[in-house]
Amino acid sequence: MKNTVFLFLLLSFGFAFSQDNTVEIIGKTNVNTFKCTNSNISKPTGSFYSESRLPVLQLKVNDFDCRNRMMTTDFRKILNATDHPNFSVRFINFKKNANSYFSAIVEVKILNRKRFYTVNFFESKGILTGNETVRFSDFGIVPPKKMGGTIVVKDHLELTFQLKHI
Question: Are residues 165 and 155 in contact, defined by beta-carbon separation less than 8 angstroms?
Fold first, then answer.
């Protein structure tokens, strides 16, 4: 019984630790939706508590998993993972609005193109959750088409963050 409880606690701790920092990109096609997730994010540099050193997330394109090998390969090709293996999210401003609500100005840099977005976050149990709509076209990317144009990826993407509030 002790071993079972210990194993449960160990697995629970490991799951909670591995889920501290996650970035998801959620998109749609004319057929369905897709979600590419990166949970392999190292501790960001900086801190939400320091105005002079706000966090910067370095995201490896090859760490995103779309739960479908072909889709993951296409995603990495679209973001040109060979020539641009990383993209970054840099917090420019981070302020508390109300009880557990925050707003941030973030710089997203993909394919050496920078775009600025205002992201609203909610904090619960030390985890900040926020999302913002971005577009492929914001970064000079033409939304892909597959199967001779019968499947078309929409330009709009939902960028979702779950970050440990450090």
Answer: no
